[in-house]
């Protein structure tokens, strides 16, 4: 008969048996190695995450630290790049090295800068003498600060020829009139003796726009010869329609930049470029222009500046007194065609570039004194040091310190009109000086009773202040009497010029010399 233990006993015994087995199993299992522990830690921590994702997170910072650490380790273990020392196959001195260089291909690339000659082969037979070239043609350029004697010496002329050429050329062109960049075509002949400098056969250069000069050797020695160049002086007339920008419209019409600037300065004294000119108006400029028979062109001064609207002239300015035999002693000034008529009122110009008015004319509370006081001018807000311009032609009647005005300048214009300019940082004119419209008379400042840099601009008539806004000066006729007819005649001649007529080529005349082709030019083909 079999006997079974009680259920509680069996469970206890079984449980105790299982616990003992498990404890025995845990005790028997081996401990993990250090390498396995490091691998498990690296797998769990992820030291090299994708740095393009989760920027700024702890994982991203951990990856950045890994990258910096590896980079530092790589730089620390970086090997050096010092040259490896090795003995040469054979010791070479300076003479042997130079010999090797002369026999290598390097002299061909470096222009044979060693100066050594290659050894002759059996195919080479020595010559008893080498003939010298009968002539040498070269071109020398006069540099800035250079002189003609130094140029001739560099070209290889002897001292006797240098002195004679300098004397001959100086009799035609003064040394100070030779512009830098002038090119001299020089031809040297045979040497008078072995080791002597070559003799000068000929020298040619452009002395002026209308003159070539050559020094040639004749039976009696060197002599200077003038070669006049035919020049056409038909003025260049450029006309066009004003678009969104007068400057761009003139450039599109082919006007040079310098001519456009001269045109704008001339017109700006009589018309506002911003308010008086409209899209669709016509601009008209005539320039002094020269064409030589050799093809060169030279643009001169602005002779005429005009503005037309609806086919009728709105402004006509012409240069008068520029050395064309005109009387009056005026040196190249632009005069309006209306100046030969009756006196007229001309609006004054702007005293500063800024048009921002900070205080108008009339009563106001003074910013420093604190009570209402009549403001006898207009204040223009402008940066410190900005130039101040005379609004019209006039004479300086006061220039200096003037109470609350600080540094102050007062001008007297025609028709009893005067203007004043206050709070200047610096005065640029003296008492009694005659100034022109647009001339700088001082610079913006904050002297006197002022809270900041600005221009206080006043106007006077009969000694009493008036509102400077919209005032005009009476312009008297500047061309009258004998000059009137000459002025009109010249203006009509200029207006009769066809636009673009000066751009054509000059027809060669039978007397124009034909330049012979030089041998040195033939070699370049």
UniProtKB/TrEMBL annotation:
Regions of compositional bias (Basic and acidic residues) in chain numbering: 515-525
SUPFAM superfamilies per the UniProt record, alphabetical: Duplicated hybrid motif
Chain ranges of the M23ase beta-sheet core domain: 373-468
InterPro entries: Cell_wall_metabolism_enzyme, Dup_hybrid_motif, M23ase_b-sheet_dom
Coiled-coil annotated residue ranges, if any: none
Highest taxon in the source lineage: Bacteria
Region (Disordered): 1-31, 506-525
Keyword annotations from UniProtKB, A to Z: Signal
Species of the source: Novosphingobium guangzhouense
GO terms for MF: metalloendopeptidase activity
Low complexity bias locations: 1-10
Protein name in UniProt: M23ase beta-sheet core domain-containing protein
């Amino acid at each position: 008969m079999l006997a079974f233990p009680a259920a509680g006993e069996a469970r206890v015994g079984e449980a105790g048996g299982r616990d003992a087995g498990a404890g025995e199993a845990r005790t028997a299992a081996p401990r993990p190695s250090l390498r396995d522990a490091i691998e498990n830690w690296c797998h769990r921590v992820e030291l090299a995450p994708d740095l393009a994702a989760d920027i700024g997170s702890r994982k991203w910072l951990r990856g950045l630290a890994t990258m910096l650490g590896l980079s530092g380790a790589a730089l620390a273990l970086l090997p050096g790049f010092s040259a490896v020392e090795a003995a040469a196959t054979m010791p070479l001195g300076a003479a042997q090295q130079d010999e090797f260089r002369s026999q290598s291909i390097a002299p061909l690339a470096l222009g044979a800068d060693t100066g050594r000659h290659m050894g002759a082969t059996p195919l080479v037979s020595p010559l008893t003498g080498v003939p010298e070239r009968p002539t040498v043609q070269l071109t020398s350029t006069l540099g800035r600060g250079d002189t003609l004697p130094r140029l001739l010496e560099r070209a290889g002329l002897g001292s006797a020829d240098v002195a004679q050429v300098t004397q001959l050329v100086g009799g035609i062109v003064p040394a100070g009139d030779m512009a830098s960049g002038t090119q001299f075509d020089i031809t040297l002949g045979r040497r008078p003796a072995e080791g002597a400098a070559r003799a000068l056969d000929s020298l040619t250069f452009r002395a002026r726009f209308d003159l070539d000069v050559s020094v040639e050797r004749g039976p009696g020695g060197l002599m200077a010869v003038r070669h006049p160049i035919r020049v056409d002086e038909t003025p260049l007339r450029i006309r066009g329609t004003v678009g969104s920008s007068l400057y761009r419209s003139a450039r599109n019409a082919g006007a040079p930049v310098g001519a456009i600037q001269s045109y704008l300065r001339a017109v700006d004294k009589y018309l506002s470029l911003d308010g008086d000119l409209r899209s669709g108006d016509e601009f008209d400029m005539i320039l002094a222009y020269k064409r030589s028979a050799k093809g060169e062109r030279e643009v001169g001064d602005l002779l005429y500046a005009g503005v037309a609207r609806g086919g009728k002239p709105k402004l006509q300015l012409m240069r008068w007194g520029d050395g064309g035999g005109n009387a009056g002693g005026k040196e190249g000034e632009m005069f309006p065609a209306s100046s030969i008529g009756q006196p007229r009122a001309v609006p004054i110009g702007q005293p500063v570039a800024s048009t921002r008015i900070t205080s108008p004319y009339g009563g106001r509370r003074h910013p420093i004194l604190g009570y209402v006081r009549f403001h006898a001018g207009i204040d223009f807000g402008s940066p410190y040091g900005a130039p101040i311009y005379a609004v019209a032609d006039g004479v300086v009647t006061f220039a200096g310190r003037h109470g609350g005005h600080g540094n102050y300048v007062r001008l007297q214009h025609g028709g009893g009109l005067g203007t004043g300019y206050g709070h200047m940082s610096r005065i640029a004119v003296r008492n009694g000086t005659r100034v022109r419209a647009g001339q700088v008379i001082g610079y913006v400042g904050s002297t006197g009773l002022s809270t900041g840099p600005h221009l206080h601009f006043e106007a006077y008539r009969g000694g009493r202040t008036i509102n400077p806004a919209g005032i005009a000066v009476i312009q008297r006729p500047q061309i009258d009497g004998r000059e009137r007819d000459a002025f009109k005649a010249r203006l009509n001649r200029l207006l009769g010029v066809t636009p673009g007529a000066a751009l054509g080529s000059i027809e060669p005349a039978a007397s124009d010399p034909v330049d012979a082709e030089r041998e040195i030019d033939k070699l370049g083909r």
